[in-house]
Specification:
Blueprint: H1 5-8, H2 14-27, E1 33-34, H3 46-57, H4 70-84, E2 93-96, H5 98-110, E3 116-120, H6 127-133, E4 137-141, H7 152-158, E5 163-169, H8 181-194, E6 197-201, H9 221-227, E7 228-233, E8 246-249, H10 252-263, H11 271-281, H12 285-310, E9 324-328, E10 335-337, E11 340-342, H13 345-356, E12 358-359, E13 361-362, E14 371-375, H14 380-395
Parallel strand pairs: 1-12, 3-4, 3-5, 5-6, 6-7
Antiparallel strand pairs: 2-8, 7-8, 9-14, 10-11, 13-14
Helix pairs in contact: 3-11, 4-11, 5-10, 12-14
Length: 398
């Protein structure tokens, strides 16, 4: 008996694997500082938890429409309309089990076997497998080193007659880059000329710092609006990772197709969770604004700490969004830590976890070999501890 070829071609998520290893070490009593997980360490706001509780007590535990309760779809449409300055109808919204399912659904709806999908590298680890499951082929597109902004010349060169669409992620995981409006406008113009879909992963849209502005391709004229399939959710910006609630904003024809697909997969999102998400949208901006402000302070702490321990041996590029720092470690590869060779970023990350008890994610997981991703979605105390341990580790390399 054999598994399907479709399943055999999949690769486990390295970010989840590292997070699981770090948590297992913690369970065994090790003082691990986990900079691997992309998960806010804040509790879900109390009014959100209470809304789920009250929904369950009121008997709101039955099936809902596959695309979500009308109240939540209308509230999401109203919020996106306000924040993006575009007119969005509830019929264009499909509520899903996290933004991950929204992205998967969208690819299934618009990608045919043999189609190419362009993805800017470094990229989130799940994009390649999602595209493959839709029968497509991922084509990585280079970005400019340092800024991590898309290389528009490389984008043009990567497009062929087989190209069906592209995935855009800003603010980005894993680099924390926030693409400029000029870049977004150029990408929309490119999609117009090549007749492509834009799958815009906007999971970190509220997590921007130092005056950076999130710009969605849906905001760039009629073409951007018509071509954009926008995925977002509640996990990162509202500290609701385990609640599993995201959404897709898409033209009505695509949204209807996605709802049909979801109806054959998972049906509706957990019903009390939907009422919790509705309460999240009703929170005062100051509630989550405080979390964003704290992330900004942690970002500065981590950038300053890394700059101090690296002392010019490798550049430190300050991220402008999300909660990740993509750190260049190429100058340290080829060295040894005690008896362990550090031939690549994976071996460096493994040694860092085993010896210094700091969990990171190797950049090769994101198509960025020679880098490691550090998440600052943890306390300032943990960040200071991690920086000190990494400094000692790097200073011991031979």
């Amino acid at each position: 008996m054999q598994l399907s070829q479709r399943i055999q071609q999949l690769t486990p998520s390295l970010t989840l694997a590292i997070d699981a290893k770090a948590k297992e070490l913690q369970r065994q009593g090790a003082d691990v500082v986990n900079l691997g997980a992309g998960e806010p360490d804040f509790d879900t706001p109390a009014p959100v938890v209470e809304a789920a509780h009250q929904a369950a007590l009121a008997g709101k535990t039955k099936y809902t429409p596959t695309a979500g309760i009308p109240e939540l779809r209308s509230a999401i449409a109203a919020r996106v309309s306000k924040t993006h300055g575009i007119a969005v109808d509830a019929a264009e919204i499909v509520v899903s089990n996290g933004a991950k399912q929204a992205l998967y659904n969208a690819l299934q709806a618009v990608v045919n076997p043999g189609d190419d999908v362009l993805v800017f590298a470094p990229y989130w680890v799940s994009y390649p497998d999602m595209i493959a499951l839709a029968g497509g082929r991922m084509v990585p597109v280079a970005v400019h080193e340092g800024s991590f902004e898309p290389n528009l010349a490389a984008l043009e060169e990567s497009c062929t007659a087989r190209t069906r669409g592209l995935i855009l992620n800003s603010p980005t995981n894993p680099t924390g880059a926030v693409y400029s409006r000029e870049t977004i406008e150029a990408i929309v113009d490119f999609a117009r000329r090549k007749d492509l879909w834009i799958l815009s992963d906007e999971m970190y849209e509220l997590l921007v710092y130092d005056g950076a502005k999130h710009v969605s391709p849906s905001q760039i004229g009629a073409e951007g609006r018509a071509r954009t399939l926008m995925a977002s959710g509640f996990s990162k910006s509202f500290a609701m990772t385990g609640w599993r609630c995201g959404y897709l904003v898409a033209p009505k024809q695509v949204a209807s197709a996605v709802a049909t697909l979801q109806g054959q997969m998972t049906t509706n999102v957990n019903t009390p969770t939907q009422w919790a998400a509705l309460a999240a949208l009703d929170l005062d901006d100051s509630v989550m604004g405080a979390m964003v402000k704290e992330f900004g302070e942690r970002r500065r702490l981590l950038v300053r700490g890394m700059s101090e321990i690296l002392r010019g041996r490798a550049p430190v590029h300050e991220p402008r969004g999300a909660f990740y720092l993509m750190q260049d470690v190429r100058p340290f590869l080829g060295k040894r830590f005690r008896d362990r060779p550090l031939r690549d970023d994976r071996e460096l990350g493994e040694a860092l976890l085993d010896s210094a008890l700091v969990a990171t994610v190797p950049g090769s997981a994101f198509a960025a070999p020679g880098f490691i991703r550090l998440s600052y979605a943890t306390s300032r105390e943990n960040l200071q501890k991690a920086v000190a341990r990494m400094g000692a580790f790097l200073n011991e390399l031979a």
